[in-house]
Amino acid sequence: MLREHRFWHHEKEGGMMSTFQLFLQQLAVICKKEILSIWQDPATRRIVVIPCILMGFLFGYAANYNLENAPYVVLDQSRSGASADLLSRFDGTSLFHRVATVSNANEIALYIEQEKAVMAISIPQDFQDRLDQGEKAPVQIISDGRNTMVAGLVTGYAGRIVNSFNQERTGVSAPVTVITRTWYNPNQITRWFFMPGIIGLLSFAQVFVLAGLSVAREREEGTFEQLLVAPVSPSVILIGKAMPPMIVGFIQCTILFCISYFWFNVPFAGNFGMFYTAIFFYVLSSTGCGLIVSSISKNMQQVLVYVVVLMVPMALLSGVVTPINNMPRFLQIITYADPLRFALELIRRIYLEGLTFGQLFWNFIPLSVISAVTLSVAAYLFRHHLN
Known about the structure:
It contains 14 helices and four strands. The protein has helices at residues 2-39, 42-62, 81-91, 105-113, 127-132, 148-170, 190-221, 224-229, 234-263, 272-296, 300-316, 329-334, 339-353, 361-386, and strands at 70-76, 96-101, 119-123, 140-143. The protein has a four-stranded mixed beta sheet, with helices on both faces. The radius of gyration is 30 Å and the shape is elongated. The two termini are 45 Å apart.
């Protein structure tokens, strides 16, 4: 009796082991097939590698909100020593570059309308006299409001220069001084803000597209019927189609990280284990979204339409450009369904702040929920179409 029990126990373990081995073998075959379909297609191969590198460098150089050149014009009706002293402070900076000294106010409009200048300084005729008499002497700063960010920056810098001029002329310093310290980005370089975000944004687009094309490609090439008669369960097919886009997502995130860290010298303050844990949940949820699109699409053209329609609002609602707290309340609620929102926050905070899992635990929960929901819906739709 004891021998029979042991024999049955070993037979059960052997059956479970053989079932698991069969599962791994089937999964390896499906994964190999999907990877070959991606890699053997020259167009898909170029899409996987080249845009990732090009966009990484493009965003690193072009996405720059730091004001490094501010051309301006001057209308100096005073032509006095005081006005010359004030203007020399603008000319002595590496930021402001005088492009013209005009003789009337109409010429100011011409330079700003033609975008030859972003700012104009107008000094009244009685500027010196007012200062000598101890009166207030107004100086008008005109900025180009078509670009509100640049307009705000140039007026802010101009205000600091004028305040410095006032303090030196009166000899009275302000009773309250502000000493600023910027944590995690001491020089306020916008590239430090954008590059970690681009790691998530660009890889999301690629993973979304590849996962979306996986089933639609089978239908368009006429091989979907072969999956219907294959001795493989729908779960194995789904997992096999999900893994190659996730691998591509990991590779692209690593490429973008190397561009950010080694080329643009954006310092990494976090832990690589935490970083890739966030990447894992992120590409998992992205793959789930792509598989849902793929399951409801009849061909690859429909997939691309869905991707274009969904990518723009998901990117805008992720906070990559504008803070989520500045959005209306109903949009802030909608962002909880956007995996990009939590992924970008995790990547940025790990990359720039070096936070630990305990500090970011609550950001992993919604990303995990989104992953579970999207993959479950994708599995249901996939089984429905297979049946």
